[in-house]
User: What shape does this take?
Amino acid sequence: MKKQIAVIGLEMHCELKSNSKVFSSARNAYNETPNVNIAPVDMAFPGTLPVVNKKCVADALKMSMALNCTQPEYMYFDRKNYYYPDLPKGYQITQMAAPVGINGKIEIEVNEKLVPVYIHDIHLEEDAASLDHYFDTSTIDYNRAGVPLLELVTEPCLHSAEEAVAFLEHMRDVYKYCDVSEADTKKGQIRCDVNISIMDEDAKEFGTRVEVKNVNSFGGVYDAINYEIKRQSELKEQGRYAEVEQETRRWDEETMATIHMRSKVDAIDYKYFVEPNIPKYKITKEWLEELKQEIPRLHLERKYDYINNYGLSNYDATILVKEREVADYFEECVKLGITPKIAANWITTQILGYTNKYNITIKKIFLTPKRLKDLTDLINDGTISSKQAKDIFFKVLEEEKEIKEYVSSDNAQINNKEELMNIIDTIISNSPGQVEQYRAGKTNLFDYFVGQVMKNTKGKANPVLTKEILNQKLNN
Ligand code: ADP
Ligand code: MG
Assistant: This one.
């Protein structure tokens, strides 16, 4: 059999952050008591009308631009008609004919290489209610009905489980950087449909595609893809490729297998038509321009900037861009004049160590970039040693006082050459025996003298200067 390649396309759903739902005034918060955040529109009460949430449209347009998509001239919605208990209206308001974005392209990083991903479209729609099935009963929570949802559809351009998961992780970070979603898979905010087919390496046409619906963890996506590639390849190897059917399957966490749900032959005809209760409205160039200004520099761009222009390691840069707040903190430090490598060291070791330990965000840490600057300035001008700086770091966080309060005559490093010379002169004249032995060749006594200076100054003598003076005095 010829070498096979896998072809993968993803449909990624992500719930947006907002105060109210996308078409009603009910709160957008469903991880609480069931059936409390519901407006009449969400329940399809007769005579109620949807009102579009402007913030959701703005965020959707922002994401469209972040993915380098083309935006439509007019914003409008379509009805996707089907019946299901989680959909009281009997239709979902979505976008079919004119999505907020089409024909996008981004680059993601897979094993330190850049891989292009082509975006078919991104569209705004409403989530359905959530259903829970128990032994002999099912429950419905309408809190989720009408929660804003962005669906992103890629072209079939991915070729492995690694690439697919790298794309999802990349997108999760983009959503978070743009502050349009918490993008938390654990809260069910990201859900995926995964389309997988295989084909001969040199084939001109794609193979038969299988869709795996509603995979809700990245690990699940990874496993479902590898499971399907193996299943389809084995059938092909056995000359049974015709048995790979165009169908919808689901991922079963328990058996770690995909399971047949329905055949695509009996695919539902949704009878789409333009949602008549929401007027079309023009998306102006000015509004788009305004929204564009709100898109921050994204993580990959920052990462390469840190590596290429600040000389950071790939490792450090990756840690710094993982959360936007951390990257912003780092950039603020650099802006204030801290050497990038030094700022990176403090952040990746001390600061993130502290924020992780106490589970706080870097935004909340008392040691602001300005205070870190004060601290590193003291090291640079020789007032304190790096060892002392670390001690001060912890004291500052504990006591929340300004850096300068920690630099007193008690702990300031002695950098005054004359002062040190006087101290060293006294020590030398008080140790004639050791001086004689040292000059006779017992050079390891040097450390004895350094020790004496430190003892005398309670460890505050500048060690470099101390050694320099001792060298002069003892060897002349
Ligand atoms: P549907 O409405 O049935 O979900 P779409 O045309 O919207 O179909 O396609 C959905 C997804 O299927 C897209 O992400 C697309 O990239 C992917 N896809 C299309 N053809 C293939 C294929 N041969 N192999 C893998 N994925 C595919
Ligand atoms: Mg689909």
In short: DSSP finds 14 helices and 15 strands in the chain.
